[in-house]
Amino acid sequence: MRKTSHRIRQMDRRGRAKRGPIVFFVAVIVVSASILVITARRPSGVGFTITTKIASSETAQPEPTPFSTTILKIPIHIDGEIEVPGVYHVKDGTLLVELVEAAGGFTDNADRSPFNLAMRLTAHMKIFVPRLGDPSDQEPVQGYTLAPQGNDKIDLNRATREELETLPGVGPATADAIISYRDTYGAFGKIEDLMLVPGIKEGRFARLKDHLTVSLP
């Protein structure tokens, strides 16, 4: 009987000795499995956000249209003793001196005395440059129009040389001729007396009369 109890105790010790490692390995397996499950559930890597652009017809702005300006040009005919005669298109308000320069300048035989080079050009004018010492039936300035400025007119009996040169087609030589006539023969009695001045004919007077007046001495 004692032998049997001894054997039972030995077998129980051996069973406990064998169960110890098994329990350890089972615990290790359970812990490892738990770690794997937790790791699998945890998101890995660096988070990122996806953004998209949505085109909207309300926010789209059209390209601005470049602003452009149109410069008005007028035709002017220049002929006679000029290097390159012809029709030129120049900016409105161009001075006669600028047109002459564009046309190459006066020739050596040009008579410049009839012209006021500071005169502003108007559309469809014709500038005829005569030859020195060669009388011509053509008026030096044709088609000149001057916008009326109220009742302001040039007084032939009181006007200075500079004031006379503001008249259409009147240059320094013509202004001097008017003053010389006035000094020699006295005051003008009427504007038509201007045709008594050498170099001023009926056609030229017709373009000047609306800008003239005479006062009593």
What would you say this structure looks like, in words?
By secondary structure, the chain is α/β, with parallel strands linked by helices. The protein has helices at 2-41, 96-102, 161-164, 172-185, 202-208, and strands at 73-80, 86-91, 126-129, 141-142, 154-155, 212-213. Among the domains are: 69-145, Ubiquitin-like (UB roll) (Roll); 147-217, DNA polymerase, domain 1 (Orthogonal Bundle), CATH 1.10.150.320. A 4-stranded mixed β-sheet has the order 2-1-3-4, covered by helices on one side. A two-stranded parallel sheet has the order 5-6. The longest helix is centred in the N-terminal third of the chain and has 40 residues, at 2-41. It is rod-shaped, with a radius of gyration of 55 Å. Mean pLDDT is 77; it is low at 146-150.
Largest sheet properties? 4 strands, mixed
- Percent helix, as a range, is 25-40%
Question: What is the N-to-C order of secondary-structure elements (H for helix, E for strand)?
Answer: HEEHEEEHHHE
Roughly how many Å apart are the termini? 177 Å
As residue ranges, the low-confidence spans are: 146-150
How would you sum up the global shape? rod-shaped
Q: What's the CATH architecture of the domain at 69-145?
A: Roll
- Under the CATH scheme, which class of the domain at 69-145? Alpha Beta
Number of helices: 5
Question: Count the strands?
Answer: 6
Provide the gyration radius in Å.
Answer: 55 Å
What integer is the average pLDDT?
A: 77
CATH fold category name of the domain at 69-145 = Ubiquitin-like (UB roll)
Strand content is 5-15%
Widest sheet, order of strands = 2-1-3-4
Structural category: alpha/beta
